[in-house]
Amino acid sequence: MRVLIAPDAFKGTVSAVEASAIIADAARAHELDVDRAPIADGGDGTLDVLLAQGYRAVTVDTVDAACRPRRARIGRSGDAALLELAEVCGLVTVADLELDARHRTTLGLGLAAQHAISAGCSDLTLALGGSASVDGGIGLLIGLGFAVLDSDGTPVSADLAGMIRADRIVVPELPDVHWRALVDVTTPLAGRESSAMVFGAQKGLDAQARIHGEEALRHWATVLQRTFGIDVRELPGGGAAGGVAACAHAALGAGILSGSAEILRAIAFDERCRACDVVITGEGSFDAQSTLGKGTGAVVAAARALDRPVFVVAGVSDVASVPGVKRILTCAGVAGSAALARQEPVRWLRAAADRLFDDLSSTRRAGD
Predict the structure, then answer these.
(1) DSSP string spanning 105-145?
(2) pTM for this predicted structure
């Protein structure tokens, strides 16, 4: 039996690459053939997945979400570059600070992109997920050399406060670069389901601040439309990373793409799936949202279309069944509790994988 092992990250504990190695070790211990294919959905972990696919890591000088100096990795492959927002200026870069999206920025993403362009890259992919800010991408533009001015002609700050004051964008001469944005949500830039309203709380915005953020994004959308002639208010996925996707689309011509679909394409998932008998995927929390554009949901859908059985190994799960999934096994269930599973994630992921492969081996023997 050949097994395709394609987990996403178990956020906060085990990366997708590490998870695939742990599950693969358990599979080999049961004398199974293995193909490791760690995945991502455009958010945290996307860079590591593509580094495993032949990209090389390059370190650049930039700033984190609080504008502190940071040395961050980007991925290079020929004239293509992959910039993972989470790695450059995401929530993880300010984990030591209080959550406060009002004063967080994507300036570092623009600076990192400028480094890539200066190094000769002409094909840039922005992996948007795990952001700390709701700045509408104003930081990205300022980092790239755009001037964003208020009604008096004074440069504004590269954050939510700057958005609400922005009146005019001065566009610099930029090299010919092809841009794309990988997203894991369909949230629009503005409206009741906007980035600020849906994701603001997890970035430190209280109810009043979320309303203020929504107003700022609406205003920013007007400035973008006045400058670039594109209305991005209701653009699906435009609200990704606090509005960075909508801004990149309007100002840079970036296509907004499903991160999970693009990653599966990049790792040749369909071809590798056809060569296997069973698919194993997983993530930290497998729930109803997992099938809505997330990496594990994309794996389940793709494997189901190719008539391959899928098993899920997750940290925790609040769903009993999902179409196309033969079984959901959790580390929490094996360990006895979610708290115990998080204390020793490697141990319990290995134990859950062992249990799954024990069951698969027993089923196979029963069928012989």
Answers:
(1) --HHHHHHHHHHHHTT--EEEEE--SB----TTHHHHHHHT
(2) 0.91
Rounded to whole angstroms, how far apart are CA atoms 194 and 197? Answer: 5
Pairing type for strands 325-330 and 310-314 reads: parallel
3-state secondary structure of 297: helix
**Residue range 190-200, pLDDT digits in tens:** 877 777 888 88
Return the C-alpha torsion angle 151, 155, 158, 164, nearest 10: -10
Which domains are seen in the chain, by residue range? 2-39+267-367 (3.40.50.10350), 46-259 (3.90.1510.10)
82 contacts 50 by C-beta, under 8 angstroms: yes
Q: Work out the mean pLDDT of the chain and round it to a whole number.
A: 93
Tokens, residue 1: 């039996």
For residue 178, give the 3-state DSSP assignment: strand
Q: Give the count of alpha carbons within 13 A of 50, CB side only.
A: 30
| Mean of pLDDT values over 302-307 | 96
Q: Is pLDDT at 150 greater than 70 in this prediction?
A: yes
